[in-house]
Amino acid sequence: MARADEPQAADKFQKILFLGNSITLHGPSPKIGWKGNWGMAASAPEKDFVHIVTRSLAKSSEKKPKTLVKNIAAFERQYVTYDLKQNLKEAFAFQPDLVVVAIGENVPKLETEETKMQFKASVDQLLKELRTDNQPTIIVRSCFWPNTAKDAALRQACQQAGGIFVDISSLGKDESNYARSERDFQHAGVAAHPGDKGMQAIADAILKAVQH
């Protein structure tokens, strides 16, 4: 039975939008030995952070939340020129009441003040577009592979949008959170993604933020 201070979180979130990169969702890619169609490199769909978060929020809710999960790695790589309204039409039309933004890892290095400002401005715009009439709860998490410049821009944009920033930078510093510590992979890039332990830790951090 849920505690008196808990149920509203789960009941409130009936439409959850996840915007991320390969850690959130990656389709099969034989050339790198990845056969899944879920968050890389969890061992099974139910082990990735998207499924763990959704399952946990569904537990104390009367009905299972609807989810929309989108890989927006193209936004990360081309944040200056990316057409948000055109490319994320479906996401904006979804009208979520909870948004989890899990990006940053594919953003090219922010080595100048100009690129830092441009990236922050692009994230500002993304979060602004997400703030629809129903005023969703917005969660932005830091990078799994910690990066001071990227994480600072994400934090600032999140705070400006009235979102909740989740700092997971410590997770990437712990080798046991990487998939390569759990099993062997033919591709080092896949192996450098969070494994089941890392995915659980990311989910726990997000859930803690949501339920407070």
TrEMBL record:
Superkingdom classification of source: Bacteria
CDD domains, per database record: SGNH_hydrolase (cd00229)
Sequence intervals crossing the membrane: none
Gene3D superfamilies in UniProt: SGNH hydrolase
GO molecular function: hydrolase activity, acting on ester bonds
Record Pfam families: Lipase_GDSL_2
Protein name listed in UniProt: SGNH hydrolase-type esterase domain-containing protein
Record organism: Gimesia alba
